Amino acid sequence: MTGSIPIAVEFTGGLELLFSNQRKHQVALPASDAEGTPSTVGYLVKWLCENLIKDPRKEMFVLDDSVRPGILVLINDADWELEGEEKYELRANDEIVFVSTLHGG
Amino acid sequence: MDPTFSADAQVQRLRQHIAATESQLTALKLQLQQAEQAAEIASYLNGAYQGGLAADWRDEICGALQYDTPRPLPEDTWQDGESGGPTSAKWTTDHVSQQRWPLQSEEYKRYGRQMIMPEIGLHGQLRLRSAKVLVVGVGGLGCPAAAYLAGAGVGTLGLMDGDTVEVSNLHRQIAHSSARVGSMKVDSAVEYLRSLNDCVNYESHPHHLTPEKAISTFEQYDLVLDCTDHPTSRYLISDACVLTGKPLVSASALKTEGQLIVLNNPARPPGDASGGPCYRCIFPKPPPAETVLSCGDGGILGPVVGVMGVLQALEAIKLLTAKLPPTDLDWAMDLAADEVPAPAELVRPTMLMFSAYSTPQFRSVRLRSRRAACAVCSTEATITRQNLTSGSLDYVAFCGVTTPIKALATTAQVTATQFSQLPTDGSNVLVDVRDETQYAICALRGSVNVPWTGNADTWLEEAIRVGAVAELGDGRDRYFVCRLGNDSQLAAKAVMDNVLEGRAKDIKGGFRAWREEVDPSWPDY
């Protein structure tokens, strides 16, 4: 165990309903996974499913081991596809936002 | 050969020659007249703007003047001019003033407040006037967007929607009115917009967008606004914009939040990686149908969707009045001169997120560029004009459909009428599974509120905890009700499967059926 890193996690677009109806969460994420690999966003997603999600409908957040279609993941205000997606290695105080796309109009 | 015939033929030939030469002369005179007009306009503009008019805009404005000014036919020009020649043509004062100023006097008054800003100016107003914008969806987003575009003087505004106005639209769809409930939304909006600005040419498309018609319709416009409310239309509009080369201003809203993205900007052909991303680049897979919430189900605050529609109009105005991007030739020349374009010139795709109850309310995030394997805008595109127009793409199937919930056998359901006839002697319990907010709007006396949690286990746990359901049964029947009769089936099933076999029943059609069958005064929210 190499300690934890502080990460700011936010849910918007209705996703907050799955997380105690709270948008902003400050989490202390283990700095590395069981194999000692530094924690990535992919690890954070798994960790959120095991530790933070309060709603049993986990499939609203993760489908087939990946963030479900229709959710945009932002790493420090950028689409995670610009940052390496789930392989991005987290740094202290990174801000990760999960946005469910809206369709109403 | 008959000499008379030969002479006649020669006369004929000469006449033809003279006619042809005269026509050529007329054409030359017309060209001279136009050249003189252009020179005159240029000198007016020089005088009027004292060099304040960027050289880039001059040609464009001169073009607008020539295009819009009714020019007298050559015959009119010199029919009474004894001195002959077009230079002697006398223009009326009106004509001169029309010639001199590219906009009508009414337009200077109407648009002056935006024209005096350098961001718009005369060139921007001319751009707006020559622009054709299509607004798809004339609801919470489309109404404010169309209102501001019409107000700003967009030349042609197309409106597309197949729905009619309902009373429940009016808290947010500002172009409609109580008197026009039941009218086509497109007709209602055009009536409103005409009273706002009659200088705009409005084009009605009183139907929903179909893949078959999308390309031919979009081709008539310069820019498209996606003001619709479903992923099906969002993918279709984005695909059609890529295939017709139109930039797309897309927005959405639900409850207290909104999102705005400018897509396919710059609009480049499929396969050109320098074009802006499309909706599929950002969202290659549609969300599961059951996660898509409409304004009718999830709720919407009027100003929230209004803000998003107004922002769409703003982005549209910015796009239409923007300085033209450098042409390929300019680029080549720049590169030859070792000049790298300033980074500010590059369009960086972003999404603007609005959340009415968060601090800060606005946040702009960076998006990816075009996806190398995008189904419509990449070199590997599988979606083409042909298969879109032929109707072979099924957007409804692509996005999935939700079917009405049928969790229970008919024997486990009662009608609202049957429920109303049950004794109120305490031999049964009514469990209302709507959320607390809806329960507080209206509820039946004696009912117990246990909001459906989306999950049988957690809901049942809560129902037992509050005493709405007895874990071991207490001899009383349970009836379940909700707004439309979906969640109540799931709750009844949870109870039937786990606790009260045979003693749990669902009220079919929920409170909507209750209002229709039993109590017409029940609030229709």
TrEMBL record, chain A:
Listed InterPro entries: Beta-grasp_dom_sf (IPR012675), Mopterin_synth/thiamin_S_b (IPR016155), Urm1 (IPR015221)
A Pfam family per the record: Urm1
BP GO terms, sorted: protein urmylation; tRNA thio-modification; tRNA wobble uridine modification
The subcellular localization recorded is: Cytoplasm
Report residues of the Glycyl lysine isopeptide (Gly-Lys) (interchain with K-? in acceptor proteins) crosslink: G105
Post-translational modification here is noted as: C-terminal thiocarboxylation occurs in 2 steps, it is first acyl-adenylated (-COAMP) via the hesA/moeB/thiF part of UBA4, then thiocarboxylated (-COSH) via the rhodanese domain of UBA4.
GO CC entries: cytosol
UniProt KW keywords: Cytoplasm, Isopeptide bond, tRNA processing, Ubl conjugation pathway
Going by the entry's taxonomy, the superkingdom of the source organism is recorded as Eukaryota
Q: Which residues carry this modification: 1-thioglycine?
A: G105
Q: In which pathway does it act?
A: tRNA modification; 5-methoxycarbonylmethyl-2-thiouridine-tRNA biosynthesis
Principal subcellular localization: cytoplasm
UniProt cross-references to PANTHER family, sorted A to Z: RURM1 PROTEIN (PTHR14986)
Function as written in the Swiss-Prot or TrEMBL entry:
Acts as a sulfur carrier required for 2-thiolation of mcm(5)S(2)U at tRNA wobble positions of cytosolic tRNA(Lys), tRNA(Glu) and tRNA(Gln). Serves as sulfur donor in tRNA 2-thiolation reaction by being thiocarboxylated (-COSH) at its C-terminus by the MOCS3 homolog UBA4. The sulfur is then transferred to tRNA to form 2-thiolation of mcm(5)S(2)U. Prior mcm(5) tRNA modification by the elongator complex is required for 2-thiolation. Also acts as a ubiquitin-like protein (UBL) that is covalently conjugated via an isopeptide bond to lysine residues of target proteins such as AHP1.
The similarity annotation says: Belongs to the URM1 family.
Name of this protein: Ubiquitin-related modifier 1
Q: Please name the source species.
A: Friedmanniomyces endolithicus
TrEMBL record, chain B:
Which SUPFAM superfamilies does the record cross-reference, listed alphabetically?
Activating enzymes of the ubiquitin-like proteins, Rhodanese/Cell cycle control phosphatase
Q: Which residues form the Rhodanese domain?
A: 429-523
Places the protein is found: Cytoplasm, Cytosol
Q: Which residues bind Zn(2+)?
A: C278, C281, C374, C377
Q: Which keywords appear in this protein's UniProt record, sorted alphabetically?
A: ATP-binding, Coiled coil, Cytoplasm, Metal-binding, Molybdenum cofactor biosynthesis, Multifunctional enzyme, Nucleotide-binding, Nucleotidyltransferase, Transferase, tRNA processing, Ubl conjugation pathway, Zinc
Task: Provide the catalytic activity annotation.
Answer: [molybdopterin-synthase sulfur-carrier protein]-C-terminal Gly-Gly + ATP + H(+) = [molybdopterin-synthase sulfur-carrier protein]-C-terminal Gly-Gly-AMP + diphosphate; [molybdopterin-synthase sulfur-carrier protein]-C-terminal Gly-Gly-AMP + S-sulfanyl-L-cysteinyl-[cysteine desulfurase] + AH2 = [molybdopterin-synthase sulfur-carrier protein]-C-terminal-Gly-aminoethanethioate + L-cysteinyl-[cysteine desulfurase] + A + AMP + 2 H(+)
Can the keyword Coiled coil be found in this entry's annotation?
yes
A biological process from GO: Mo-molybdopterin cofactor biosynthetic process
Q: Where are the transmembrane segments?
A: none
Q: Where is the composition biased (Polar residues)?
A: 85-96
Function, in words:
Plays a central role in 2-thiolation of mcm(5)S(2)U at tRNA wobble positions of cytosolic tRNA(Lys), tRNA(Glu) and tRNA(Gln). Also essential during biosynthesis of the molybdenum cofactor. Acts by mediating the C-terminal thiocarboxylation of sulfur carriers urm1 and mocs2a. Its N-terminus first activates urm1 and mocs2a as acyl-adenylates (-COAMP), then the persulfide sulfur on the catalytic cysteine is transferred to urm1 and mocs2a to form thiocarboxylation (-COSH) of their C-terminus.
Q: Which PANTHER family match?
A: ADENYLYLTRANSFERASE AND SULFURTRANSFERASE MOCS3, UBIQUITIN-ACTIVATING ENZYME E1
What name is this protein filed under?
Adenylyltransferase and sulfurtransferase uba4
